[in-house]
C-alpha cells in the first residue's frame, strides 16, 4: 500500500489550477514559497515530532515544549532565518509555548505602550531572548472587566519606585501564558496610585525571576495554574499564577508612552494620544482572525479527505460502498465550513490591510476611522473564532467514530483552539461592544454624519429599510449585488429595530442591558455582512489560474447562501427576503454543493499542509487511513502487555468469584 | 471561609419547594432516597476519588479504572445492594469502564437475542461476573452500515462449529468498549455463511481470553485502539481492536432467538418475530436520552452556580460588580439549557414508559406501534445528544477563562460525552431514518390510515397546514395549546413540503438523497415537537409542592419559545407564525428569563448532585470558588519544583545567549 495515492482519482477530478489556488491561499507566491520551505524543514526535523504528544505527562510535555522552543531558536539562529521565516518556523512547530506570548504580547505591549527609551532598552533584550516576557493582565477574580483589576502599583517618591502588590487572593494574576515557569519578566497591569489617588490600570515591566538561577525574586510567588482542556493541546503552555508582595520596581518601568509619573510623583498625560493603544489591539485581533482561518482549514482538510476515503452504505452487489462525501447531508455540513475557511482567510487578509491603514492614519493624527476599525476587528474576532470552534467539532463529528481518536488530530485541535473564543475579549462581550457602536452609528444617521468603512452601507438606510430583493429564480442568488443587498438589508433592519426598541426605555443603559441579546444578534448580522462583502471584493479582483476564480465564486456563494439558510429567521422576520426566495436560495445552495464536490479534495490540498503539520491519520495526504490507524493503535502504552497492569489485583479476583454474596 | 455558603442568599430567593422539585427530578421519592444515599456512599469512599484523574497516564488511568470497578463490585456484594442500588453505585463512580458494556450491551444482547437455554447458560455467568463481556459490532472499515460488516462466521457441519474470521484489515473489530484489555467474551457480529450462502449479519458469543491467565486464545489478536478525546474522560475505557483468525466456536454460541442453524447446517427462522430485536434498541436509546439529561444538568449546574459567583463590570463606587448571571446575554444562553435539561429529563421518563408499552405489545404480538416507537427513540436519541454536546460546551464558554481549566469539570464532561452523538447510531443517520418514517406516514395519510403515537398530530394535517396561530399578545405565548399548535404546524408543513418535493423525482431514492438535508430538518422539527409536548403533558399533571408547578411551567415555556427563536426560519417560512408573533414570543421569553432568575440556583440544586459527582470547583455547592482554584493549582506536577525540569538544558542557554547569530 505504501506510496499509493488513494486520493489520486479525487485529485484528477479537480477543475482548477491547484498551484495557483495555493498562491491565492498563501497570499502571494513569495509567502507560499517561504511557508512551504519552512513547513518541510520543520516536518523533517525529529525534534519537532508531535505524534506522541497526547501521551506525555504534564511535566514531560512541558519539558518537550521547552526543548522545541530552544531548538526552534537554535535553527532560527543557525540558519539565520529572517523574521518572516522565523514566524513560519514557530507556526509550524505547532505547540503552544511561552514564546507565543513573548513575541505575540510582551513585545507588542512594549512597542505599543513603551516610550522610545523604554523600547530602546527592552526590545533588544527581548529580541535576543535574553529575557523572556509575558503579559500579565487577568486576575483570578477579574478578566473581561480590565478596569476592575485589583493589583496596585503605588508610587513611592522616597525611593522613586513603584510598589507592586496583590492585596487579595482574587487579585492574584491568573492565566498569563508563559508566566508559570518560563518567563523572567512580565508586563503587569495594575492600578496606578500616586499620593493616595487611583489613576486606573496601567502597565509595568516587572522582573519575576533571577536571570542567574531562574528563582523567583523576593516577594514573588509564581506557579502554574494546572491542567487545561484536553491532552496535549494547550497544556504545553505554563499559564501562570502570580502574587506580588510589595515588590519594588524603578519608576522607569511603568510603560509611559501615553501617561507618565514624574520624579515628583505627578501623574501627567503625554502628548501621545491614548487612541494609539488601540492600534495594538487591531493588530492582535487581526492575527486571531488569521489563526481562525488556519485552524478551521486544518479541520476541514481532515474531514474532507477522510470523507472521500470513508465509505458507508449504498453498495450494489458487494461492490464499493458510497463515499460519505457524496451524501448531501455530509456536504451540507462540510462544504459551508470549507467555504468559511476561505472566507475567513480573505477577511483576515483585508484586516491586515486595515491595520496598515489605521496605523498610517494614526500617525497622521487622524482618528476618524478608529472606532469603526475597532468595532470591526472586535466583531470579526468574535464571529470567526466562534464559527471556527464550532466548525472544528463539526468536522470531528463528520468523521464518525474515528474522529474521536486522538490521532485523528481533531480532539487536540479543538481543545487547543476553543480558548480563542474567550481570550483577547470574551466573544459575547465583544459583540456587545460592536452593538454599542452600531447603535451610535444609527443614532447619528439623522444628523447626516456619513458612516465610514464597513458601516458605509448604513448611509443607505432609507433605501435598505424598504427595498425588496429582486431574486426571482435560483440563479439570481449567484448575483453578488443581490446577495449583498439582502445582507445589508437584514443587518441594518436589525440594528434599526434595536435602536427603536431602545428608544422606548427612559434609561438607555437599562434598555441596552434588557435588549442585549437582540443587540448581540444585530452585531452578528453586521459582521457576517463584512465577511460576505470582503469575499465578494476578493472574487471580483483579477484572479489568474485556470478555473480558480470560478471555484472562489462557488465558495463565496456557498458561504453567503448557507449563512442565509442558517439565519433564515433574521432574513424573514426583517422582511429582507420572502419564504419563496429563501426556498430558491436553498435550491441554488444544493446545486453549488454539487458543483463543488469534484473539487473538494483539491480545494483542501490548496492549503498546502504537510502531514506533519496536519497531524492527522484521517487527513493523510495519500488517504491511506486504515493501515495507519491499525499500526498506530499498537503504540499505546496500554498495549505494552497483553494482560493489563492491574489484572491480578482487580480482574482475576472478580472472575474467580472471590467477591461473592451479590444479591443480584 | 470554610463552611460559609456563598450562595446562601441566592438559595433564599427561591420561590418554590426545592425538596419537592428533587422528587420530581428524581422521578419518585423512593428514587431520590436511593440515589441520594448511594451518591453519598460513593462520595465518601476514598477509592472513588477522581479529582486527579486528568493527571494520570493512560496505564495508570486504566489501572485505576480496574480498581474502581473491582471496588464497586466489592461494595455491591458486601453491602448486598439491590440491582437498583448497584446501578446507582456504578453511575456515581462516574468513570467509563468495561462494566458499562458488560451490563449495558453484552447482557442485553444475550437477553434480547439469546434463546432461553442460551440465557440460562450465559446470564448467570455474566451476572456473577465470572465472565466479562463486550459488544463487538463495529469494524475498522464499517460502522453505521451494519449490513456491510466483513467478519464471517462460516458453519462447519463436520465439527458442528462456526469458524469466525477477519478476512481483511478493514474487517478488524474496532471500537468495542471493554474489548481491548478486560473482556473475556464478546458478542461478535459476523456474516453467517452456511453452505456457501451468506445470510447477513448475526451475533455470536466468542470467548476471547483464557479464564485462567487472561491470555488471548489461539487465533485471537486483541488490543486497545489508543488515546481518545481529552485527558481522563473516555480514556479509562479500553475500546479495542480484534482480529480473528479462523477461530472455532460451538454451534450453540450463535445467538439463536430469531434465526438458527441446525445441526445439519440448515438456516431456519424461529417463530419468534424479528421485530423483538427492536425492543432492545428502544431500551438502549431510552437510557441514552436519560444520560443526556444527566450530562446536561451537570454542565448547567456548574455554569449556573459559577455565574452567580462570578462578577464582572457594573460596580458603582468600588462596590461589588454585577453577577454575570444577571446579564441578559448570559441568561439567554444559560436558561434555555437549564430548561433543556428538564425537558430531556421528562421526555426520558416518558421513553421509559414507552419501552414498557412496546414490550407489552410485542409480547401480545402487536407490532403496530413499533415503527413509530422506533423512529421516535431514534429521533430523540439524536436530538438530545446533539443538544447536550453543544450545551456542555456552551456552559464551558459561559464560565469564561476558568471554564477552560480541567478542574472546572467541563472539559472532561464534554470529552466524555460527545461520542454519544456517534455511537448507537450516528445522529444524522438516525435523523434520516426518522425522515423516512415521516415520509411514509405522510404518504399514507390519503389512505385514511391513522397515524399513531407521536405522529397522531399528522392525522390533523388538513387543519394544521392552513391554520393561523391565534397569538396576539406576549401572554398568549404562555398558552400550551398555542405553543403546541405552532410546533405541530411547523413540523407537518416541513414534512409535507419534503413529500411534495420528493414527488417531483422519478426515482424516490435519488430524491431522498438529494433532499436529505431538508429531510433531516423536518425530522428535527418533529422531534422538537415531541419534547415540547411531553414537557407540556408533564406540567399538566398534578404536581405537589409549593411553587413547583409554576417553575416547571416557566421552564417548559422557555424551552418552547427558545426553540421557536432558534429555528425561527422554519416557523416563518412555513407560515406557522408571523414576524409580529415571533417578536411577541421573544418579548415573552425575556420576561420568562427574569422570572426564572431568582430560582436559578435552587433549580440546579434540585438535581441533588454531590460535589464529588459534579467534580467541579466552579460548581461547588458552597460557591467558594476562588480559594479552591488557588489551592488546586499548586497540586499540578509542574509545580513540584519552582524551576522547571528542562531549565538547564533548554532555557538557560537561551537566556545566556549561547545560541547567537540571529539575523533578527
Ligand atoms: C488559554 C487562555 C490563555 C490566556 N492567556 C492570557 C494571557 O496571556 N494574559 C492575560 O492577562 N490573560 C490571559 N487569559 C485570560 C483571558 O484574557 C480572560 O479569560 C478573558 O479575558 C475572559 O475573561 P474572564 O475569564 O474573566 O471571563 P468572564 O468575563 O468572567 O466571563 C464569564 C461570562 O460572563 C459573561 N460576561 C462578562 N461580562 C459581561 C458583560 N458585561 N455583559 C454580558 N456578559 C458578560 C461572559 O460572556 C461569559 O459568558 C487567558 C485565558 C485563557 C483561557
Ligand atoms: C466512544 C465510542 C464507543 C464505541 N463503542 C462501541 C462498542 O462498544 N461496540 C461497537 O460495536 N461499536 C462501538 N462504537 C462504534 C460506533 O458504534 C460507530 O462509531 C458508530 O456507529 C458510527 O459509525 P462510523 O464510525 O462508521 O461513522 P460513519 O458512518 O463512517 O460516519 C462518518 C460520516 O458519514 C456520515 N454518514 C454515514 N452514513 C451515511 C448515510 N447513509 N447518509 C448520510 N450520511 C452518512 C455520518 O453522518 C458521518 O458524518 C463506539 C464508538 C465510539 C466513538
Ligand atoms: Ca495525559
From TrEMBL, chains A, B:
The keyword Flavoprotein belongs to this UniProt entry's keyword annotation: yes
Domain Acyl-coenzyme A oxidase N-terminal: 17-132
Positions that bind FAD: 138, 177
Annotated compartments: Peroxisome
GO biological process, one term: fatty acid beta-oxidation using acyl-CoA oxidase
Keyword Nucleus belongs to the record: no
Annotated keywords: FAD, Fatty acid metabolism, Flavoprotein, Lipid metabolism, Oxidoreductase, Peroxisome
GO annotations of cellular component type: peroxisome
Cofactor: FAD
Active-site positions on this chain: 424 (proton acceptor)
Domain Acyl-CoA oxidase C-alpha1, residue spans: 278-439
Domain Acyl-CoA oxidase C-terminal: 479-656
Principal place of residence: other
Top-level lineage group: Eukaryota
Ranges where the Acyl-CoA oxidase/dehydrogenase middle domain occurs: 134-233
One annotated GO molecular function: acyl-CoA oxidase activity
PANTHER family in alphabetical order: ELECTRON TRANSPORT OXIDOREDUCTASE, PEROXISOMAL ACYL-COENZYME A OXIDASE 1
Record family assignment: Belongs to the acyl-CoA oxidase family.
Protein name as it appears in the record: Acyl-coenzyme A oxidase
Amino acid at each position: 500500500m505504501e506510496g499509493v495515492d488513494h486520493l489520486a482519482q479525487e485529485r484528477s477530478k479537480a477543475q482548477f489550477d491547484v498551484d495557483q489556488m495555493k498562491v491565492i491561499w498563501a497570499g502571494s507566491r513569495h509567502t507560499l514559497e517561504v511557508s512551504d520551505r519552512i513547513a518541510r524543514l520543520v516536518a523533517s526535523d525529529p525534534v519537532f515530532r508531535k505524534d506522541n504528544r497526547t501521551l506525555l505527562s504534564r511535566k514531560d510535555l512541558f519539558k518537550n515544549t521547552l526543548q522545541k522552543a530552544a531548538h526552534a531558536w537554535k535553527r532560527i539562529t543557525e540558519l539565520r532565518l529572517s523574521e518572516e521565516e522565523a514566524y513560519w518556523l514557530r507556526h509550524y512547530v505547532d505547540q503552544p509555548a511561552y514564546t507565543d506570548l513573548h513575541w505575540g504580547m510582551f513585545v507588542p505591549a512594549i512597542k505599543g505602550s513603551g516610550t522610545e527609551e523604554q523600547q530602546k532598552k527592552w526590545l533588544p533584550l527581548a529580541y535576543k531572548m535574553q529575557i523572556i516576557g509575558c503579559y500579565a493582565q487577568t486576575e483570578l477574580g477579574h478578566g473581561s472587566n480590565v478596569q476592575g483589576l485589583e493589583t496596585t502599583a503605588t508610587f513611592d517618591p522616597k525611593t522613586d519606585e513603584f510598589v507592586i502588590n496583590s492585596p487579595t487572593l482574587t487579585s492574584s494574576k491568573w492565566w498569563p501564558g508563559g508566566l508559570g515557569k518560563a518567563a523572567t519578566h512580565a508586563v503587569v497591569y495594575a492600578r496606578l496610585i500616586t499620593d493616595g489617588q487611583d489613576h486606573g490600570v496601567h502597565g509595568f515591566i516587572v522582573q519575576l525571576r533571577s536571570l542567574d538561577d531562574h528563582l523567583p525574586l523576593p516577594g514573588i510567588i509564581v506557579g502554574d495554574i494546572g491542567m487545561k482542556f484536553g491532552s496535549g493541546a494547550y497544556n504545553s503552555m505554563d499559564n501562570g499564577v502570580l502574587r506580588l508582595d510589595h515588590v519594588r520596581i524603578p519608576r522607569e518601568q511603568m510603560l509611559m508612552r501615553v501617561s507618565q509619573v514624574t520624579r515628583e510623583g505627578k501623574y501627567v498625560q503625554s502628548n501621545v494620544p491614548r487612541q494609539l493603544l488601540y492600534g495594538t489591539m487591531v493588530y492582535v485581533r487581526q492575527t486571531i482572525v488569521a489563526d481562525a482561518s488556519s485552524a478551521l482549514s486544518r479541520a476541514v482538510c481532515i474531514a474532507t479527505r477522510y470523507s472521500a476515503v470513508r465509505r458507508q452504505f449504498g453498495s450494489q452487489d458487494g461492490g464499493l460502498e458510497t463515499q460519505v462525501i457524496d451524501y448531501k447531508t455530509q456536504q451540507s455540513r462540510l462544504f459551508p465550513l470549507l467555504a468559511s475557511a476561505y472566507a475567513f482567510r480573505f477577511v483576515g487578509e483585508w484586516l491586515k490591510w486595515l491595520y496598515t491603514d489605521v496605523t498610517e492614519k494614526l500617525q497622521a493624527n487622524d482618528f476618524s476611522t478608529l472606532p469603526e476599525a475597532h468595532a470591526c476587528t472586535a466583531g470579526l474576532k468574535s464571529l470567526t473564532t466562534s464559527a471556527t470552534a464550532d466548525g472544528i467539532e463539526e468536522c470531528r463529528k463528520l468523521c464518525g467514530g474515528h474522529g474521536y481518536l486522538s490521532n485523528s488530530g481533531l480532539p487536540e485541535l479543538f481543545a487547543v483552539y476553543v480558548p480563542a473564543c474567550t481570550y483577547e475579549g470574551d466573544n459575547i462581550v465583544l459583540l456587545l461592544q460592536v452593538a454599542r457602536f452600531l447603535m451610535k452609528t444609527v443614532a447619528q444617521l439623522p444628523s447626516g454624519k456619513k458612516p465610514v468603512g464597513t458601516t458605509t452601507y448604513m448611509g443607505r438606510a432609507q433605501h435598505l429599510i424598504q427595498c425588496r430583493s429582486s431574486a426571482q429564480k435560483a440563479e439570481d442568488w449567484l448575483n453578488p449585488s443581490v446577495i449583498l443587498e439582502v445582507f445589508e438589508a437584514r443587518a441594518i433592519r436589525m440594528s434599526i429595530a434595536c435602536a427603536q426598541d431602545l428608544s422606548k426605555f427612559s434609561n438607555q443603559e437599562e434598555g441596552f442591558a434588557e435588549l442585549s441579546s437582540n443587540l448581540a444578534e444585530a452585531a452578528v448580522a453586521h459582521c457576517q455582512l463584512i465577511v460576505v462583502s470582503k469575499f465578494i471584493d476578493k472574487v471580483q479582483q483579477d484572479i489568474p489560474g485556470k478555473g480558480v476564480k470560478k471555484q472562489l465564486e462557488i465558495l463565496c456563494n456557498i458561504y453567503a447562501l448557507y449563512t442565509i439558510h442558517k439565519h433564515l429567521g433574521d432574513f424573514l422576520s426583517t422582511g429582507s427576503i420572502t419564504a419563496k426566495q429563501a426556498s430558491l436560495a436553498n435550491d441554488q445552495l444544493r446545486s453549488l454543493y454539487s458543483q463543488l464536490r469534484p473539487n473538494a479534495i483539491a480545494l483542501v490540498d490548496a492549503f498546502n499542509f504537510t502531514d506533519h503539520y496536519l497531524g492527522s491519520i484521517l487527513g493523510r495526504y495519500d488517504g491511506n487511513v486504515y493501515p495507519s490507524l491499525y499500526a498506530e493503535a499498537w503504540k499505546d502504552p496500554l498495549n505494552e502487555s497483553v494482560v493489563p497492569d492491574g489484572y491480578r489485583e482487580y480482574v482475576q479476583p472478580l472472575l474467580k468469584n472471590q467477591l461473592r454474596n451479590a444479591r443480584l
